[in-house]
Design goal:
Rossmann fold; 4-stranded parallel sheet; 38% helix; DNA-binding; 5-stranded parallel sheet; homodimer
Chain lengths: 369, 369
DNA sequence: CTGAAAGCGCTTACAG
DNA sequence: CTGAAAGCGCTTACAG
């Protein structure tokens, strides 16, 4: 079954659900004031200073005293006030992630890597969404006011420009699309070798016998044209190495399947097009859909390769040949970098070798010709 | 082209990329100490108390004094220390989200709704991932120690049990799968009417002429059996209303396409199976893939309906008939509830009417028979 | 309209 | 091993 446009078949049949409120609308149970170290001290018959020693596992506390304090902590349900700790000690152990997206696969996976690393190191993690409407400097200021470190997921122009605006004296690190050539000194940052990965993917298509490879770009955070990121460069390099003049790249209008669908419709009209590299898997999904609507079969008529290896890439039909990225690893490494700036006695481990890999599935194959 | 198993075609061709480190490995620029209100006061020739009035837009400040202070703030690059503010004022304006997942569509979209609402209200948002390994009570304690509110995305058992363990005196709200029948008083919470949505989706399949509808379940956070959540109940109710004895539900072993694929293979073996409702779109994707591998075409041989309307549902082939959920709305409403507990003078608005809607696409159709 | 005092809940030296 | 003091950077009453 084929339809002209995807949207044609979307129709709201029925609106049946609703949100309900649970719980009492009254103020709720009395917010009993939390116990402080003085309360604990009184209960244990010691000075509050001794309580401080116990909760910080300071060695110089008599065993019996410690027991008594711990018992008091238990019965009073004492939890050390993190705010007071931060103010008094000057250590914050928190990082705020600045990102313009949390749902796209690359962003979400990077965030997850950051979260795991932060949790493992005892850091709390904040998230602040960057939007074109909000004032960038205000957003950065308020994030920096929390005292902890700043982490920028700089895959897009908005985030990249946020990174540029972080004041010099605010501890900050980033995951970026490509190394920066502008700023001096550059911010500590990690990146994957997108350029080489795109080159390899393109070379793979050429080896399969395709005369040329078209490219549907993600908008890039670097370079002067929105379509000329490292992935585009790798694609271009592979074609040029084979003596092929690269066609005009397409896309660069967004990250989602809709954009891929629109570009795919255009490409499907040209019978000469037999191989398409896409800047991410969502774009690839849209391209596949457009080719399907145009009656061109994949991979028999056209080969498609995506980027990122999102979870669904393996289960769509045809399953998607794509480039796997280690976003979580990038998140982990970036956190280590930031931690190195935050803690004087912490040295980030040697950079993890994070590979990208071309995952061969069904959507790319040899040309018929 | 059809392959026996999806995984067969996965093969790492090449590992080409790597992570690099940018930036100096030396400590970086001297972390010049931030200006305090006393520094500003001295620069402006006023007391620090007056500075406090200015940054809090207190009315009783002479215009000229205000100007002078504002100028000093500007030149010194003063930013109010959020930690000290929180400690002194007792207001925290922060919420920590407890969730066991950040990448699945439902979770990510809810998180986005929470983030938008929090940002709009001037709250900062923290995220803490719940894992089966970590001690739940410790995780909750450390989240609560930050002083702000707690928000639980309680779609799964782990998160639901975290919600149950939040101490009574910690301000907390939740997005849940279904209203709680256990706890008294119940926590303020919001939910969508999954039961009715599943009932409507199942009824739709019956109206198309299918004799019965099979169900591939998500693991549920409520009920005694892992497959008997509100979505299962709605499915069951629709069948029973039509005088049909429900078959045994399947799945409930996870949320991802892999689980759907495994269950789909089993279902594909039974020629009597012509209609399948899935607990989410990822499961549905796996089921579609399994049916494809078994040579059963969708919707001609088998109809499939998903749940959630994830972004890719519209672009896979066949495009997925599914139930659209307003996760972002749930997040917004839940935040309002929590804010109501946090601020004495804030009354949450009337509950938004958040609809669910059956989105008709290609994957479900009339029976051949 | 502006300033001096006390305190938020902790920690870090400094005494004993 | 334990306690009394001073201070983190702000705010909230309390004076003038």
């Amino acid at each position: 079954m084929t339809v002209d446009t995807v949207a044609d078949h979307n129709r709201d049949m029925d609106v049946t659900g609703h949100t309900s409120l649970g719980g009492p609308s009254d103020p709720g149970p009395e917010p009993r004031k939390a116990a402080s170290i003085r309360d604990v001290a009184q209960a244990a018959g010691v000075s509050y200073q001794t309580v401080s020693r116990v909760i910080n596992s300071h060695p110089n506390v008599r065993e019996e005293t410690r027991k008594r304090v711990e018992a008091a902590i238990e019965t009073l349900g004492f939890r050390r006030n993190a705010t007071a700790f931060a103010l008094a000690s000057g250590v914050t152990r928190s990082v705020t992630v600045l990102t313009s997206n949390t749902t796209l696969y690359g962003y979400a996976a990077t965030l997850q890597g950051l979260e795991e690393a932060a949790r493992g190191a005892g850091y709390s993690l904040g998230v602040k969404l960057l939007t074109p409407e909000d004032d960038l400097d205000r957003t950065i200021s308020s994030a920096a006011a929390d005292g902890g470190g700043l982490m920028v997921i700089g895959f897009d122009r908005l985030a990249a420009s946020a990174l540029d605006r972080v004041p010099e004296n605010v501890p900050c690190a980033a995951v970026v699309e490509a190394p920066s050539h502008g700023r001096t000194p550059p911010r500590p940052a990690v990146w994957a070798d997108d350029r080489e990965a795109a080159r390899a993917a393109t070379a793979h298509l050429l080896e399969l016998g395709h005369r040329t490879v078209h490219y549907v770009a993600i908008p890039t955070s670097v370079g002067t044209r929105r379509s000329e990121g490292p992935r585009a460069q790798g694609w271009r390099a592979a074609l040029e190495a084979a003596g092929i003049t690269p066609p005009e790249p397409r896309g660069a209008k967004g990250w989602d399947a809709r954009v891929g669908y629109d570009e795919g419709r255009e490409l499907a009209r040209d019978p000469e097009v037999t191989a398409i590299l896409c800047g991410n898997d969502d774009l690839a999904l849209g391209v596949l859909r457009a080719l399907h609507h145009a009656g061109r079969s994949v991979p028999a008529d056209v080969s498609v390769i995506g980027f990122d290896d999102a979870p669904h890439a393996e289960f769509v039909t045809p399953s998607l040949t794509t480039v796997r990225m280690d976003f979580q690893g990038l998140g982990r490494d970036a956190f280590a970098l930031l931690r190195g700036r935050l803690e004087n006695d912490y040295r980030p481990p040697a950079p993890t070798f994070v590979g990208t890999a071309l995952i061969l599935r069904e959507s790319a194959g040899p040309t018929d010709a």
